[in-house]
Specification:
Blueprint (H helix, E strand, L loop, with lengths): L1 H5 L5 H14 L9 H10 L16 H23 L6 H17 L5 H8 L2 H9 L5 H18 L5 H18 L3 H52 L2 H20 L5 H5 L3 H17 L20 H33 L1
Length: 337
């Protein structure tokens, strides 16, 4: 991805390739976006960046809540695994493998890679588990080794918050002593913190790349989105044609837009048609009332969640205005009586 950014004469395809590089950087993070979604957001705002948890400021809030529920359930299941007698380490090993792969990806091309694989030697850990020889001291040493790796890889702006989390982890590990139940909880919490730090570093890396590719997307993002929409099929394009056609007929019929100005290619006329078309979607004029993906024009699918939010705000305003009007009518009737 870095190499693609350095290329001066990018094409629409290379813009997609650069976006893919960013997507790959956090492909396993919760709340991930597709390449074309990132390109679209950068076209709207070249300062766009991912949130600290790897999500997007414009994502559907329902998805964010679902991600939170799955996240909580996942770590509760690991704590339950470690509370068994004997403890079950299957999911722990998977978490360690994910951490190793994520850290290796961040350090790719550096001398750190060999050390990372040595510190998080998943095969050796699995062998210790099978032999029943995974001791508490080894778990603590593993956590400390991973924390040291992350401290070298993270951005300086993260040092303070990471330090606070790490001191809390150290205190919990030290307080566990020889109590097996406390050890399991402390180890699980340590892994949770470490994986969170890995994901935070990956988000920072992805955001750095987003800043680098913003100029490329600004020049070639339209080509990239156009190519993406062509792949979606004829029906999406037909929906957009029907939607815009209806907006043109309504705008010309109401006298808001001159048909001749549209024929002359006047930009302000086309902007007014598009504005009226979007208002129609939000107000439910062109849909069954609540906008669905099946009714959303193909060319607006990347803004579907924005339209949903706008429609919700519109409906709230309409209901509020109706309620106020009804109260006013009741008040006037009472005063007249």
């Amino acid at each position: 991805a870095t190499g693609a950014v350095a290329v001066g004469g990018a094409t629409g395809a290379s813009a997609g390739g650069v976006a893919a590089g960013v997507s790959n950087m956090y492909s396993s993070l919760p709340g991930r976006m597709t390449n074309v979604q990132m390109a679209h957001e950068l076209m709207l705002d070249r300062r766009f960046k991912l949130t600290d948890d790897g999500g997007s400021p414009v994502e559907n809030p329902v998805f964010a809540r679902m991600r939170e529920y799955f996240h909580t359930a996942f770590w509760e299941s690991i704590a339950s695994d470690l509370a068994q007698v004997p403890p079950c380490y299957v999911r722990v090993v998977r978490v360690l493998a994910e951490m190793r792969d994520g850290i290796v990806e961040l350090a790719e091309g550096t001398v750190e890679v060999a050390q990372i694989r040595g510190v998080i030697d998943v095969d050796a850990i699995e062998a210790e588990v099978r032999g029943g020889a995974l001791r508490w001291e080894m778990c603590v040493g593993l956590v400390e080794g991973i924390a040291a790796l992350l401290a070298r890889l993270q951005a300086p702006k993260r040092d303070v918050e990471a330090g606070v989390e790490w001191r809390r982890v150290q205190e919990e590990l030290a307080g566990a002593g020889g109590d097996e139940a406390l050890c399991g909880v402390a180890f699980c919490n340590a892994l949770k913190v470490l994986l969170g730090r890995v994901n935070t570093i990956r988000v920072d890396a992805a955001n750095t790349r987003l800043r680098m590719i913003a100029p490329v997307i600004e020049l070639h993002g339209v080509e990239y989105e156009r190519a993406h929409m062509k792949k979606q099929g004829v029906k999406l394009v037909e929906r957009s044609g029907h939607w815009l056609g209806g907006a043109v007929r309504a705008a010309v019929g109401s006298g808001r837009v001159s048909l001749q100005r549209l024929r002359d290619g006047a930009a302000d006329a086309f902007e007014e048609v598009h504005r009226l078309a979007v208002v129609g979607l939000v107000a439910g004029v062109e849909t069954s009332g609540v906008l669905t993906k099946e009714e959303c024009p193909g060319t607006m699918m990347l803004d579907f969640h924005r339209l949903q939010v706008a429609q919700g705000e519109h409906q709230f305003a309409v209901l509020g205005a109706a309620a106020l009007a009804q109260l006013q009518g009741m008040r006037e009737a009472r005063e007249a009586f």
